[in-house]
Amino acid sequence: MKHSPLFTKRRFLKFSLLGVAGAATLVAGAGAYITQTNRYRQRYGRLLVLDGHLADIAHTLAEACVPKRPGFPDIEQAEVVKRLDEELFFVSDNISSDLKAAFYLLEMFPLAYGHLSRFSRLTVEERKQVLSAASDTQDDTLRAVIANLSAMMRWYYYGHPSTWKVIGYDGPFANLPEKHSEQRVLYAKLVHETDSTIQAKKP
Question: Which of 56, 173, 181, 203 falls between 20 and 30 A from 36, CA-CA?
Fold first, then answer.
């Protein structure tokens, strides 16, 4: 049976998220609880786009995607979540919305496939098993969504200078000091200004 061309990948993502979230609600018992329990968000200071729970999902996905070996930086040293937040701040609302939906789809995926916990609450090894299971699913779009999220985490990880020496990469700047783009300078300024405003409002 051929799919209607009107049933776009974006619509599939939205419907998949609703379906998996529905199964998750039956298992977990409370939808609001999902966005109120954050283990990792406080580690990152001010973020402009990622709400508390999205930061948790991104953090735990990155942990499951990058190597944990002697000499390799961890994902906080490589600023994976902060770089993701920066990129999401500058993309269109449609792209940002789709990526957020994809992260929540990943978060619910284990509950719909036999696990008793959400993705961000699994151990690292369990998360790796979930990603492996997702890569074997017969649904091409679902497989592509989760695979691309994993690839994005690796992209930000290996794009950070802290990883270059351990992988034998000299870097793209011919040993010249890195010059940040206007976008990166603006993001850093906005984060700093927001932090300063928050501190000023504290009693």
Answer: 203
